[in-house]
Amino acid sequence: MTPAMADPFGVLLDIDGVLYVGNEPIEGAREALVELRRQSAAVRLMTNTTSRSRREVLEHLVEIGFEVALEEVLTPAAMAVRHCRERGYRSVELLVSERLLEDLAPLQRSGSARKADAVILGDLGSAFNAEVLNGAFRLLMDGAELVALQHNRYWRRADGLALDVGAYAAALEYATGREAVVVGKPAQAFFLSAMADMGLERGVMVGDDAEADVGGAMAAGLPGVLVRTGKYREDPVMARVTPTAIVDSIKDVPSLLARILPA
Ligand SMILES: [Mg+2]
Fold first, then answer.
1. Ligand 1 centroid distance, CA of 48 (Å)
2. 107 assigned to some structural domain
């Protein structure tokens, strides 16, 4: 064990594009996860998904052969619950996929279309329409806070590119003149909360999104490793983020740790 490895550290991993793409595990990812567990004190998997509940994220991972526990999976919905509790919000309006409701169950839903402490914005898919956005807009103008589960611009679904949560959040931000509170990646609070969850101060983040995964982690003071799998491409975001390391896939991460972890 090299000196850099002597102190305990945690490993934070993005899921989609790092461990698998669709139903296919990335080559060597299962073995890499086992090795990363062996080297580290704890592992947390951080996803920005707004279309699957935490339980569904876990089930999918287990189904394709990854050994993961529910406590290790962290999602923006859990951060939204925490944020609303910290602010003492009594009622919230939920604009999220049905499948996410189980993760947001601790929050009291607003029974009225006219008053809420916060509007939680996730993915409504084809249910996003002008009327729904206008309803949210009115709540915000009456004082509700906009809490966005993530702020991604777009994503790739089976039939092509599609607007993601960030695009709808931007419409509401533009109309109200107020910025949303983003609880998913790249929010520093999400990374800091993941480290606190492991009870560790040293850690590293591995992701395929230069902006949300790597940029977010590095802003929170962690080394960020970009993998060339999943959504990775050489895009303009790279000009604003200089990852601590860039590797072909998660397979290359275990041999890299001693070199990039802070002493
Ligand atoms: Mg990803």
1. 8
2. yes
